[in-house]
Amino acid sequence: MHRSVHARRITGTGGTGKVAVMGLLERHGEVRTMVVPNVRRKSLRREVEQHVESGSMVYSDSFKSYNDLNIEYIHNVINHAEKYVEGNVHRNGIENFWSLLKRTIGGTYVSVEPFHLFRYLDEQSFRFNNRKSTDYWRFDLAVRQVVGKRLPYAEVTGKVGEKPGN
């Protein structure tokens, strides 16, 4: 990126102007993703408690917001500044998911509006969770889930409740 373009687009740290997302992956199981309001301990803890059974083994990186997970969970931490794997402690599965999502956003979707981000996360989670299925089965499952449901244009554009012509 040219220096002038970089100066115009990139300000502060890498998180400036970005929407926070969180992903939870059960080993050899399904991934769950969600848009979170911020990356503070309270927000992330709420999501973990909602989706992970108490007493489960949790693997994370050394991000400080995860520090108190060992109170309710068996919490194993891998510090990426030192190593990426130590025995069974790694985050390779969820890193694989994020890699696939980023490639899809950059290649297929090209641009993603924050308002619709949860929809892209849901689609990519569906693809990831059903990646071992045949294309026919995955397509059939997707179609069965949308039959009889409506998604009005106003909801897609975020203009629910506005009168036509506004």
Instruction: Please state how the strands of the largest beta sheet are arranged side by side.
Output: 1-2
Question: What portion of the residues fall into strands of 2 or more residues?
Answer: 5-15%
CATH class: Alpha Beta
Mean pLDDT: 87
Distance between the termini: 39 Å
Instruction: Kindly give the count of domains.
Output: 1
What is the CATH third-level topology name? Nucleotidyltransferase, domain 5
Name a few traits of the molecule.
166 residues; alpha+beta; Nucleotidyltransferase, domain 5; two-stranded antiparallel ribbon; 40% helix
How is this structure best described in words?
- It is a single chain.
- This protein starts with a helix and ends in a 9-residue tail after the last helix.
- β1 (20-25) and β2 (31-36) form a beta hairpin.
- The protein has one domain (3-154): Nucleotidyltransferase, domain 5, CATH 3.30.420.
- With 166 residues, the protein is an alpha+beta fold.
- The radius of gyration is 19 Å and the shape is globular.
- α3 (92-109) packs across α4 (117-129).
- The strands form 2 sheets. The protein has a two-stranded antiparallel sheet with strand order 1-2. A two-stranded parallel sheet has the order 3-4.
- It contains 6 helices and 4 strands, in the order αββαββαααα.
- The longest helix has 18 residues, at 92-109.
- The mean pLDDT is 87.
